[in-house]
Amino acid sequence: YRAKSTGAGWAVYDERLDAPQLHRLSAIGELRAAIAGGQLEVHYQPLVTLADGGVRSVEALVRWRHPERGLVPPDQFVELAEQSRLIGPLTLAVLDAAVAQHAAWQAATGTAPRIAVNISLRCLDDPQSYAAIRQRLVDARDVLTVEVTESALAGDEARQALLDLAQQGVACSVDDFGTGYASLAYLRDLPVSELKIDRAFVRELHVRARDQAIVRSVVQMAHALDLHVVAEGVESSEIAAVLRGLGVSSAQGYYWSRPVEGALLLPWFAGAPSLR
Ligand code: C2E
Ligand code: MG
Ligand code: MG
Ligand code: MG
Known about the structure:
Elements (H helix, E strand, L loop, with lengths): L1 E5 L2 E5 L5 H18 L3 E10 L5 E12 L3 E3 L5 H6 L3 H23 L4 E5 L2 H5 L1 H13 L4 E6 L6 H12 L4 E6 L6 H6 L4 E4 L11 H16 L3 E4 L5 H9 L4 E2 L14 H4 L7
Parallel strand pairs: 4-6, 6-7, 7-8, 8-9, 9-10, 10-11
Antiparallel strand pairs: 1-2, 3-4, 3-11, 4-5
Helix pairs in contact: 3-5
């Protein structure tokens, strides 16, 4: 910033900042305050075992409880966090919330599913961010698993971080599988235990033979590599049935439940044997 004398005194400004940049800066400031002020909320969506409809695990999905704008979805702020070094504090807040939620479920019902947390590439390839989240993940490895997108499999730092996590006993899934750049060589060498097939291949599975062919071959490859397969974005019983027929063992989607506040999932763990 440069300070410049005006008639009214000294004003601090930077003449290189245009309106969108100023907007971005204020958005970053607002997000930083929101994280520090506890405005982030974590919702949970079940992953269901297709054979019996039981809850296998849940995915933690962050939301921003904004005082004026209501519940803001992650698509509207996670990228900004990744670009502004706020992703570290954001992720720590999500990890703490997830660990606390697991303990609350456990206390209430005597049983609680594992919680999968989304970890951005930035948290793995930036040493400072990684150091902070690594300890949390290792401490909570009996409770949490990690989801990374294929982009995290490509860079050396991130691959090293994933290998390190695996050595520490932290389980890892590849999220949005099929939409990124993962090559088969990466899969062969990486310590991941699960592939989550992206919604793009699942959405129209019941009417698209080509999507069925893709899912079938992913299942075959995954079994050969001893990987678990999850289908994302299941919205109907027809699609669930097709997935079952193709040998997919678990799935996630609005058909069973949208992401909801943790307390709302309690009945599914306490007694109720299945969602459907
Ligand atoms: P993702 O990890 O692939 O999460 C799945 C997204 O699909 C979620 O969107 C979920 O609500 C949505 N979804 C689940 N089932 C269905 C369905 O049947 N139909 C449709 N149309 N959508 C379904 P959400 O919660 O808006 O999250 C979007 C993305 O934001 C996530 O994609 C993830 O990449 C990112 N994200 C969410 N929480 C976090 C977080 O704590 N940290 C980081 N780094 N990223 C996060
Ligand atoms: Mg995910
Ligand atoms: Mg996904
Ligand atoms: Mg996604």
